[in-house]
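Project outcomes to date are best conveyed with an example. Our students and postdoctoral researchers have been running inverse folding experiments weekly, and each run begins with a structure described purely in tokens. The record below, which covers 138 residues, was selected by the lab manager from last quarter's runs and is presented without edits.
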């Protein structure tokens, strides 16, 4: 079967360069990290793929079980995000330093509108799985 011109364009590596999104992270210690991700990747994917040194980030690998991927968004970006699911809200409740513009990085996928956004990583991390474990011991 012949490949259409459109399919060839979609398959070409140049096409994907349009899908790059630059994201800045303010790390726990205040350092700024900048990385590029692709539209559709989660912020957890960006941290992992670009090997960003963010202490304890993404401990449950995006399975909504830890809240270590807690990020704080700028107001104008936060307003454009899809609403959080009940599962994400439950995990956020266990996150350290929750704010009005907090979300979980493993649940937020990049869009072009997020280009050059800055997200803040809270100063400390709370792993919800440990809180649950500790709760069980008491
Ligand atoms: S990586 Fe664990 S909840 Fe996002």
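After processing, the design step wrote out the following sequence:
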């Amino acid at each position: 079967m012949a490949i259409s011109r459109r399919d060839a364009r979609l398959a070409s590596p140049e096409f994907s360069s349009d899908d790059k999104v630059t994201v800045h992270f303010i790390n726990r210690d205040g350092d700024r990290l900048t990385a590029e991700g692709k539209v559709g990747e989660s912020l957890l994917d960006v941290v992992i793929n670009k090997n960003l040194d963010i202490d304890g980030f993404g401990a449950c690998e995006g399975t909504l079980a830890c809240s270590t991927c807690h990020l704080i968004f700028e107001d104008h970006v936060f307003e454009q995000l899809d609403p959080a699911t009940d599962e994400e809200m439950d995990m956020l409740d266990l996150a350290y330093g929750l704010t009005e513009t907090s979300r979980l990085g493993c649940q937020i996928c990049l869009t072009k509108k997020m280009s050059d956004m800055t997200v803040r990583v809270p100063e400390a991390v709370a792993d919800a799985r440990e809180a649950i474990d500790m709760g069980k011991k008491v």
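The longest strand covers residues 20-26. The beta strands are 20-26, 32-38, 70-72, 102-104, 117-120. The training component of this project remains on track.
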